[in-house]
Amino acid sequence: MQSPVIVLNTSKQRETGHRAQMSNIAAGKTVADVVRTCLGPRAMLKMLLDPMGGITLTNDGFAILRECEVAHPAAKSMIELSRTQDDEVGDGTTSVIILAGEMLAISAPFLERKIHPVVILRAFQKALDDAQTILREIAVPVDTNDREKMLGLIKSAIGTKFVSRWNDLMCNLALTAVQTVVRRTADFESADTEAQAPNTTSTAAAGASASAADASDKTTADTAAADSVADAADTQTPANAETAAVSSATAAASDAANSAAPDVDVREIDIKRFVRVEKVPGGEIEESRVLDGVMINKDVVHPKMRRHIENPRIILLDCPLEYKKGESQTNIEITRESDWTRVLEIEEEQIRTMCEKIAALKPDLVITEKGVSDLAQHYLVKENITALRRMRKTDNNRIARATGATIVSSVDELKEQDVGTSCGLFSVDKIGDEYFSFLTKCKNPKACTILLRGPGKDTLNEIDRNLQDAMCVARNVLFSPYLCPGGGATEMALSVQLAQRAKSDIDGIEQWPYAGVAEAMEVIPRTLIQNGGGNAIRTLTELRAKHAAGQTTWGVDGEKGVPADMNDYGVWEPLAVKLQTIKTAIDSASLLLRVDDIVSGTSKKSE
């Protein structure tokens, strides 16, 4: 008999076939169980201690899983899932993990019955296509200019978070910040017109127009990404004539909905770059506000410089106001004392020339990303010019956007049009123990700072996380102004309608996994009921009856764990978030079910 050929290193861990699939399913369910109690308005908080001794106190799914150290590859994949959801739409990180865990759990019985994974995946894909169709049917358009509706929408998004006690304040902060940084087509056209003006032929102006072009390209990419999320249902290839008929009917319904929806002309909402959250411990949370401009943790470089300037003329620099040193080590041999004096004079003259070129434009405020020497400070004080130094690049970009100034790389290239005049007030104030510079009362700023006050660092960090979620929700709705009922109503509608389709439209073995997806969708309302302390079986039965009768807006009152009509209860969620949640959950479950061999890089434990 031929001896066995050993290909893999026998000291490595290895799981194959059915055992590997069950291992992945168990890992997925375990990760889902970690965050299950974090869903809904009655969510519990998790306290996590990181290796450095810092404490994270949160109920945000992504923040919890990010701190978890897991060894199982399937569990790592589930955590990446939460990261994707956070990057794409910024909300629904807990829902997506719970749903993906449930999708894996319902697959276990089918694998036990020896149904091939490919058959299960085919049924999952059909269910995903139909789910997207149903979602677009039950979505309703929203007027993004109606501030009350938008505030109600953001309220429902952060009603489950730690900051729900300050709901009105946080919703106002998030909506004001997002509406400040929205750029529409008109903004880009005006920027292009300025860039094409005949007197902007300098290098600095060329750099500005290039950056505008880059921003335009990025915006186009962002818009395309948002469109791809919104139109995900339309991109699926019909499997047969019936599906084609369904998708064409859906397209017609979608067109009708689009015509009913307001025409939203949004090109760019860059929260990451142009909304800065400045956390200052101390004071009360009610003191938090959105500034119509920028706030920087800097003080003026010289005590005699002005700290309060109305309607300042602002110059932004990307170069040092210091003597230019040689790139490499330089040796100068001096034979006469007068030459040494001359060398020092040249240094002084160089700095004086720089300051004179700046002063020629009569600015009130000069901000540079590099240093300002003592001599330059002296000349600037003589000209009554205030200076800030060592500004971060990101802060400088925000100031440029808010004040209308252009960042210039050399004082020789300064032009009148590079001076920012849109700022109404520059002031330096002391908050707590530190000095902050404020550039406020800007005309049409397109960049802003949210000043958060609060009792402690941990509280402020949690408020910041919740505020980011709220801003992402507002951004999603501005890009794709459609809403779905919240409180588990959407998932319940999907569950009931998919179960009906499984009986009528799906034949053969695929009917079981397809109906399994319908069953898995119920996990969201069931978890909400359990977290709210309600009776899961009775409440779910009531909801099934209402949805079977076509009342798709009935969901769960998360406070009490009882059925509620979302039209009255007022909890709505963006369509983009729901689409992304279901797509990501089903795709990730499909990915893990296709794994039939796990070879671990770690060695087996020594026996």
Question: What do these coordinates show?
Answer:
By secondary structure, the protein is an alpha+beta fold. The chain contains 21 helices and 20 strands. The protein has a four-stranded antiparallel beta sheet with strand order 7-14-13-8. Strands 11-10-9-12 form a four-stranded parallel beta sheet, sandwiched between helices. Helix 12 links the parallel strand 9 (314-317) and strand 10 (365-368). Helix 12 (337-359) crosses helix 13 and helix 16 packs across helix 19. The longest helix is centred in the middle third of the chain and has 28 residues, at 203-230. The protein is elongated, with a radius of gyration of 30 Å. It starts with 11 loop residues before the first strand and ends with a strand. The relative contact order is 0.18.
List keywords for this structure.
607 residues; alpha+beta; 4-stranded antiparallel sheet; 51% helix
Task: Furnish the topology, listing elements before pairings.
Elements (H helix, E strand, L loop, with lengths): L11 E5 H19 L10 E4 L5 E4 L2 H7 L5 H16 L4 H20 L4 H22 L1 E2 L5 H12 L8 H15 L3 H11 L7 H28 L10 H20 L10 H4 E7 L7 E3 L2 E3 L11 E3 L3 E4 L19 H23 L5 E4 L5 H9 L3 E3 L4 H11 L3 E2 L16 E7 L2 E7 L7 E7 L2 H23 L2 E4 L3 H16 L6 H11 L1 H9 L4 H13 L5 E4 L4 E4 H4 L2 E3 H19 L3 E7 L4
Helix pairs in contact: 1-3, 1-4, 2-3, 3-4, 3-21, 4-17, 4-21, 5-16, 5-17, 5-21, 6-7, 6-15, 7-15, 8-9, 12-13, 16-17, 16-19, 18-19
